[in-house]
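Researcher: Let's walk through a ligand-bound prediction step by step. First, I give you the protein sequence. Second, the SMILES string for calcium ion. Third, you return the three-dimensional complex as structure tokens. Ready?
Model: Ready.
Researcher: Here are steps one and two:
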Amino acid sequence: MGTRRIWFFIQFEPHPATSPAYVKSGFFPQFPYDYLMSLVKQKYDNLRCIRSRVLTAGGLILSIFLVSEWFAHASERPNIIFFLVDDMGWQDTSVPFWNKTTPFNQHFRTPNMERLAKQGRRFTQAYACAVCSPTRTSIMTGQNAARHRVTNWTLYEDRETSGKTPRLLPPRNWRKQGLQPGKAPTLPAVLRDELGYRTIHAGKAHWGAYDTQGSDPLTLGFDVNIAGHAAGGPGHYHGEKNYGNAEAGGRTRPWGIPGLESYHGSDTHLTEALTLEAKQAISDSVADNKPFYLYMAHYAVHAPIQPHETYMPNYNGKKYSGTRIAIPDNEARYASMVEGMDASLGDLIHHVESLGISENTLIVFASDNGTLSLHARGNSPRDTGRDTHSWPLREGKGSAYEGGTRVPLIVSWATLAPGSEVQRSLPIPSNSISQSQLIVEDLFPSIIRWAGGKSYRSETSVIDGVDFTEALLGEPEPHSLLNGRALVFHYPHQWTGQPKGGYQPHSSIRQGDWKAIYFYKNQVWELYHLTQDIGESLDLSQAYPGKLERLAMTLKQKLIDRGADWPVHRKLKKDLPLMLPDTMN
Ligand SMILES: [Ca+2]
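Model: Step three, the predicted complex:
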């Protein structure tokens, strides 16, 4: 690993010798570094941030400064549970994320998400990538998919996972090997090495391909790995089936879940087994007096769509709420998986309450892409037609449309204690809703900030994400980076063989009310006004050519700046970069 440095700027309790003028100047010829460090060693001897160094240039310029909010309140550093659900859609919950309660909100049962939303802040316009590995790599690196180039889901480093499409091949240099340890710091590595956290991985990893270092979360900054490996789906959810391993105690590639052998043959559902192990890891961390970062990345609710038996009676043989429409069998199974996932969230909240640390535990709830609306769920969920599982959004996982990328996001304290010191440092307005437009790489700098780091910069990698603390605590200031910025999506792959529905190689841009999508196969643009047309039903590219041109230019420039790989023309074997609209030629 290369040298990692975090840049903190003094904000709280500076030594008397460091006046605000000193701090603002950026030059500290008499900065009491030794005094400061003696305090660090005395009070927080186990914190690895001590390794951070002061470098000088010409003996005058101090290029790294330490100390932050975290420094002043190290004993109050929050524990963080990042609860990431797999393939959970924006509507797969009883918590409304639209401007009204929808039929799907009435169908799904997620009482613990409801509690979290009441306690904290809900983001209605949060986005991830269209499929798993790109999102998970963005969380780890803070980079946009066009930059980190893990643009599709991974499994083996020498095998293509992209679906076939007649005219195009996938990009030549996308990282089929997935995320690997290297000079770029990962989120857990920063939390562990610079801020003193114990970093716990539980569930689905899906970063590095099989037989690469990155397939093991322990190489990517985690202290603990519970059941994470190269594959992005479970062979089976049931303990009786050994979670997809052919024999109890054995391991069956590629889909058998590793590391939960003690549950093989039992009636423990995978979601529950992961929760039990995560709870133990939390207890261990508390016993060792270490703040923890738990990345609770459930395999649920990814396919296979299998029953979570405890919750099946709520859906099996029932009708959709307020209708005479029978719930299809696979939708009953799916809803039981969602409720089982939600129960895990409740179990973790109860666990930190029982340990007396809930007021000091921050929960980030998110999904990694939109809901599955094909294959195992290729049905008509409410007699409203196929592929309507994301309604009012269009399509689902893998698609360029909103159903592919818009995801639920909630940030909340596990228990409200507004008067506590730690919650006063991050006063999240309860039962509140933010319409700030966020993208998954924003989580990287934001979580570091919430963990106590002030402003994060890396010397070894570019961070595309923007710290959205302002949006967490209220409305961002007019000049905020969060206002009016462009969100960029780059999925230059065919997802499975689906010929329509936006599952073709594409790039897209969201800015303000508008969204433009470019499809590489036919080199066509679409334009939607999302505020008035959340279902992307009316293509306005012909009606508003000027708007499209501006978005297209921004998108192309951002993709070039980030070194995006392009699809390849199948016959000519040439890259096919994004083409600007015809009106610009
Ligand atoms: Ca996923």
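Researcher: And what stands out?
Model: DSSP finds 15 helices and 16 strands in the chain. Confidence is low (pLDDT under 50) at residues 1-74.
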